[in-house]
Model the fold of this input.
Amino acid sequence: MIKLQLALDVLTTDEAMKLAEATKDSIDIIEIGTPLIKHEGIGLVKKMRKAFPDKEILVDLKTMDVGEYEADFCFDAGADIVTVLGVADSGTIEGAIKSAKKHGKKVMVDLINVKNKVKRAKKAKKLGADYVGIHSGIDQQNRGHSPLEDLKEVSKKVNIPIVVAGGINQETIADIIKHKPAVVVVGGAITGSKNPAKAARKLKESMTKRKKKVS
Done:
């Protein structure tokens, strides 16, 4: 089953907790976004873990150095998945993976700004990553970039679970699901909605219906 991940790129603990609570019946993974973890710190991971014991928690560290060190304190706080940048040194990625194995957790290698995504995805798999991320960042989205073409290419050429993110909404999710990612990440289409619970539910329903058609 394809999982739905809620990207919390808000800036306060209160906002994050309210959004997670409102959408918890439809989402599988709670993502503590990069701006949020920088703003609120590791204490938020502990609060999320306590409040939502049945959800996976991803901390979007986008680690660029000292992979084991940064992953360690997130896993110790209750995270299930951390992210490390694909453009980082392979030793950094290996460090995060070492930490994940030590804690029985997972690592996602984010391929944002990686030029040869297929090559780096293959390397990430060889190093032992659990996922690779096909990710169009917000600055890229503002220039009209979508993750769809990269998703098509990597999903065809590399046998590794894929997390896909970047402007995904009710109108675009059907095209994304066709390529069978492991996880679909949605942020603004839920968090910017007047009714986040309804938005998350509709997206989850669309994913479920589409999964039945393609399976």
